[in-house]
Write a structure and sequence with these properties.
Helix content is about 30%, strand content about 25%. By secondary structure, the chain is an alpha/beta fold. The chain has two domains: about 5-30 and about 285-415, Lyase, Ornithine Decarboxylase, Chain A, domain 1 (Beta Barrel), CATH 2.40.37; about 35-280, TIM Barrel (Alpha-Beta Barrel), CATH 3.20.20.10. The strands form three sheets. Strands 4, 14, 15, 16, 17, 18, 19, 20 and 21 form a nine-stranded mixed beta sheet that branches. An eight-stranded parallel β-barrel has the order 5-6-7-8-9-11-12-13, surrounded by five helices. Helix 4 links the parallel strand 6 and strand 7 (about 100-105). It is globular. The termini are far apart. The protein binds ligand LLP. Ligand LLP binds near residues 205, 278, 279 and 282. The site of ligand LLP has 20 residues, from helix 10 and helix 11.
């Protein structure tokens, strides 16, 4: 459930009319709802609590939406952070996440990033290869520290999701091959600079079936038993993120967090480990919309195009994954509906936000909302065609504030310079 609802035909974010924000901020812009962020976090946290998983940390996957105000909203609720770069660590710390709740994932951490994270005193590194373990052990030892690590193992489970966001199959680039996992732990045990006390998996994103999770958790339980029998101390199980969300309002049925939590409790609840999760999309996707204005409509022979002022540069998901996002008028009107491609002004045929959508014939300047854009929306933005990044606005109750401003052209060009010979 989210807090983007129509009141007397006018779309609101909590108690603020979207049209009012559009006047104040200009379009396109992202709008996030505090109450929705809080609700999504709490639903998951309470589901885990009700399933009896008292020793748990929800590490919000910062990559989904790394706006400082979004992270800070979640930090206030007790969230930790799942990061994949030093930059994300800087954000998480600045937003008030305690280092003891930060887990560093990612397949390509550099020595410099390892040093910075050790300096900050993060909870755990999720390592993805033996070479990475060796490097981390060296870096930590040189600093007189011991890095707490989890081995990210690849359970070779097909999450049944989009090709580009599947991560847990043997052919994906992520994790240590399942058959090498026990040898990996034995190897880590020899090294003074690391303490391998966790198992980590992440099988993919936008997963809408429980079965891939069940298969993966059962494999983790088996590995845990083997490792303990071999004398390893395992204290933390990081089960990754991946919970899918509804992209088509009223049609998609997402996984129920309570069922997911019960599954974890059933398979791993007695393991005596801290259960860690890394949800991103579940928390942020439906807590954000992208608001855009119709520049003009162009009715053609083969297709009708609604040209709007947001594009693939603001929301890349439709272009990149063929992803579907609901698109609705901000002000509900009784007007003839036609079938439209909703497209941006970027000079690429692949630049679209939605295809074959039944929408009322618009007036120039009408506002549209693109829903479920809070995760992997603004963060995937680019300035292609020298388009300024869309501002981000956070709403709480009847208040709103710009939490990332639209850059001026001067600011956009300020990092470029002309060499002397020009
Ligand atoms: N943990 C790890 C190690 C990950 O790689 C990811 C996402 C997450 C957690 C969070 O997954 P979530 O709960 O959000 O599903 N840009 C794509 C999604 C890429 C996901 C990358 N990894 C999209 O727009 O669909």
């Amino acid at each position: 459930m989210d807090h983007f609802l129509y009141r007397d035909g006018a779309l609101h974010a909590e108690d603020v009319a979207i049209a009012e924000m559009a006047e104040a901020v200009g379009t396109p812009f992202y709008c996030y709802s505090t109450a929705t962020l809080q609700r999504h976090f709490s639903v998951l946290d309470e589901a885990l609590a009700s399933a009896g998983l008292s020793d748990r940390i929800i590490c919000y996957s910062v990559k989904a939406n790394s706006n400082l105000a979004v992270i800070a909203t979640l930090a206030k609720l007790g969230a930790g952070a799942d990061i994949v770069s030093q930059g994300e660590m800087v954000r998480a710390l600045k937003a008030g996440i305690a280092p003891q709740k930060i887990v560093f994932s990612g397949v390509g951490k550099t020595a410099e990033e390892m040093r910075a994270a050790l300096e900050a005193g993060i909870l755990q590194f999720n390592v993805e290869s033996l070479a990475e373990i060796d490097l981390l052990a060296d870096v930590a030892q040189a600093m007189g520290k011991v890095a707490k690590i989890a081995l990210r193992v690849n359970p070779d489970v097909d999450a049944g999701t989009h090709e580009k966001i599947s991560t847990g199959r043997a052919e994906d680039k992520f994790g240590i091959a399942w058959d090498d996992a026990e040898a990996g732990f034995a190897h880590a045990k020899q090294l003074a600079g690391v303490d391998a006390t966790g198992i980590d998996i992440h099988i993919g994103s936008q997963i809408t079936e429980l079965e891939p999770f069940r298969l993966a958790f059962e494999k983790v339980a088996g590995l845990l038993a083997n490792l303990r029998a071999q004398g390893h101390t395992i204290e933390r199980l990081d089960l990754g993120g991946g919970l899918g969300v509804p992209y088509s309002r009223g049609n998609d049925t997402p996984l129920d967090p309570a069922t997911y939590a019960a599954l974890i409790a059933d398979i791993l609840g007695e393991a005596g480990c801290t259960i860690m999760l890394e949800p991103g999309r579940l928390i942020a996707a439906n807590a954000g919309i992208l608001v855009t204005r119709v520049i003009r409509a162009k009715q053609g022979k083969a297709k009708n195009f609604m040209i709007v002022d947001a594009a693939m540069t603001e929301l890349m998901r439709p272009t990149l994954y063929g992803a579907y996002h609901d698109i609705k008028p901000v002000t509900q009107i009784e007007a003839e509906e036609l079938v439209w491609d909703v497209v941006g002004p970027v000079c690429e045929s692949g630049d679209f936000l939605g295809q074959d959508r039944a929408l009322p014939v618009p007036e120039d300047g009408d506002l549209l909302a693109v829903f479920a854009a809070g995760a992997y929306g603004a963060v995937l933005g680019s300035s292609y065609n020298t388009r300024p990044a869309a501002p981000e606005v956070l709403v709480t109750g009847d208040q709103f504030e710009v939490v990332r401003a639209r850059p001026t052209y001067e600011a956009m060009l300020s990092r470029e310079s002309l060499p002397d010979w020009l």
